[in-house]
Amino acid sequence: MITHKVIIGCGYLGTRVALAYLQQAMPVTGVVRTAASVAALRAAGITTVLHDLDQPVSAAIQLQDRALFYFAPPPRHGEEETRVSALIEGFERVGQPRRVVYLSTTGVYGDCGGDWVDETRPANPQVDRARRRWDGEQRFRAWSRDSGGELVVLRVAGIYGPGKLPLERLQRGEPTVLESEAPYTNRIHIHDLVQVCLAAMARGGSGEVYNVSDGVPGNMTDYFNQVADWAGLPRPPQIALADAGSQLSAGMLSYLRESRRLDSGKLQRELGVTLRYPDLVSGLEGCR
């Protein structure tokens, strides 16, 4: 087992993964891009390196024979994952990791018309944010092929958990689409995602892709309604999808144009993960 873990993009998810390793007395280093993040991680006892992924890779990031989690977001524009590209080029200076777990998105499947989707479904990203993640997958796969390093890809559904619920949106009373017109969406609780990440690093097959969700698809309107009920807030007003273009953000509209139901059976079969929060009802209780 590779003892030292490095987490590039040690934020909401990465901090929790780092703390899980520290509880097992395993060394871990978090890489972040702001001084405020450095202070927060160091206050939690996490060794931290400050680095902007849009700059040449810092020699302070030591990766030789280490295990790397790549959780950082891609750049905001374009179809290429230039940050991953720069990192891989920098491996010649900071060392080749022995194993990488890359956090991708289920958005790489594109719109599936509500079909059930497992990992054999061909990628068909239809928006730039998903194309960037797909490009990142391909770049890490090429690195794995050329270097012999191990790679595990996690295609992750929408993440929710403590501090990551749409409460401000609900308080503002922003509308959502009619439930009868809302597409299928998929979710995973942050606590379950942490244990999936640890299991993927420990047991994931090299070259394998795993869908990460609770396996119980819903729709976005039902999600907002359940969160509102749980928080004691008014449910959001509903509007017709045809009227959404003038009232919802471009980002929200892009999500509404895609519908799929994720099959996460491979995750549980091969990684041996038992979810603590197998549905939204139990997951919201786990947000208190």
**Computed structural class:** alpha/beta
Beta-strand segment tally = 15
- Point out poorly predicted stretches: none
Largest sheet: 7 strands, parallel
Average of pLDDT: 96
Order of strands, main sheet, comes to: 3-2-1-4-5-7-12
- Molecular shape: globular
The tally of helices reads 10
Distance between the termini: 35 Å
Pattern of helices and strands? EHEHEEHEEHEEHEEEHEEHEHEHH
The value of Rg in angstroms is 19 Å
Helical residue percent band: 25-40%
Strand content: 15-25%
Q: Can you tell me about this structure?
A:
- The protein has helices at residues 12-23, 35-43, 82-94, 128-147, 167-172, 190-203, 220-231, 250-256, 265-271, 280-285, and strands at residues 5-8, 28-32, 47-50, 67-70, 99-105, 116-117, 150-156, 158-160, 176-177, 184-185, 187-189, 209-212, 218-219, 238-239, 261-262.
- By secondary structure, the protein is of the alpha/beta class.
- A seven-stranded parallel beta sheet has the order 3-2-1-4-5-7-12, with helices on both faces. It has a two-stranded parallel sheet with strand order 6-15.
- The two termini are 35 Å apart.
